[in-house]
Automatic annotation (TrEMBL):
Keywords: ATP-binding, Nucleotide-binding. Residues 4-233 form the ABC transporter domain. It holds the Pfam family ABC_tran. One of its GO terms (molecular function) is ATP binding. It comes from the Bacteria. The keyword Metal-binding does not apply. This is ABC transporter ATP-binding protein. It comes from Streptococcus dentapri. Gene3D superfamilies: P-loop containing nucleotide triphosphate hydrolases.
Length: 240
């Protein structure tokens, strides 16, 4: 089944077509990496899919729910872990998780269970009572993803999840993301080609609001006639 079906989606800002009649299907349970140089339209596309901004034309269906006419159902299906983490810096890690359970109107019992589950899944025990604002970047991103998962989304958007992290924190977060694969559909944006290579089942490369290429990392290397994925990306973007 398609988790996401995008049909002719278009978003214009004054004088700029940020997303231009885009068609795309993303299969359920896959990790889809959305790549493109700055200004390609990735964030705008994700914002439309997450019902944060309205398209000018076209539509997209998440589990067959339209972003135009079934907005609440779409919002119930998804969760976002944004670039700017949505954590409350003055609250502890536990309080942040608790807050998110409150937003989801969980009972006291479900809240207890959920926090336990997240602490175990994301190995948060060592920082549970630390103020979130005092955490390192790697821990903050891990908490941000844990918080995004509390609502049990079917589709998770990860916007540049390892931006600014050191290589060790990045590799640990990759392991965390790998553990989420197959449990939900994940749409990931990144500027790190090795990240797309390590994690994705499918890759879409955007340029000027359009989809330039679509396929597995292997497919795109073959398309660009190279064994190096970064080189393949450059060849495709420059050629398109
Ligand atoms: N709110 C806005 N108002 C006007 N123009 C915008 C707005 N948001 C985005 N744009 C423009 O739309 C185009 C696509 O931007 P978008 O942020 O979607 O690209 P991106 O691929 O996410 O880039 P990056 O990799 O830098 O995050 C750019 O030309 C950008 O300047």
């Amino acid at each position: 089944m398609d988790a996401i079906r995008i049909e002719g989606l278009t978003k214009k800002y004054k004088g700029i077509v940020a997303v231009d009649h885009l068609d795309l299907k993303i299969e359920e349970g896959k990790l889809f990496a959305l790549l493109g140089i700055n200004g390609a339209g990735k964030t705008t596309l994700i914002k439309m899919l997450a019902c944060l901004t309205q398209p000018n034309s076209g539509d997209a269906f998440l589990h067959n729910k339209s972003i135009m006419s079934n907005r609440q159902e779409v919002k119930d299906l998804i969760s976002i872990s944004p670039q700017e983490t949505a954590i409350a810096p003055n609250l502890s890690v536990r309080e942040n998780l608790d807050l998110m359970c409150g937003i989801n109107r969980f009972s006291k019992q479900k809240t207890g269970q959920k926090i336990k589950e997240m602490v175990s899944q994301f190995a948060l025990a060592p920082v549970l009572d630390k103020r979130a604002g005092k955490l390192s970047g790697g821990w903050r991103r891990r908490l941000s993803i844990a918080m995004a998962l509390i609502s049990e989304p079917k589709i998770l958007f990860l916007d540049e999840p390892t931006l600014g992290l050191d290589v060790v924190a990045r590799s640990e977060l990759w392991d965390t993301i790998k553990n989420l694969k197959n449990k939900m559909t994940i749409i990931l944006t990144t500027h790190y080609m090795e990240e797309a290579e390590a994690l994705s089942d499918q890759v879409g490369i955007m340029k000027a609001g359009k989809l330039l290429a679509l396929g597995s990392v292997h497919d795109l290397k073959v398309l660009a006639n190279t064994t190096d994925f970064e080189q393949a990306f450059i060849t495709i973007v420059k050629g398109g």
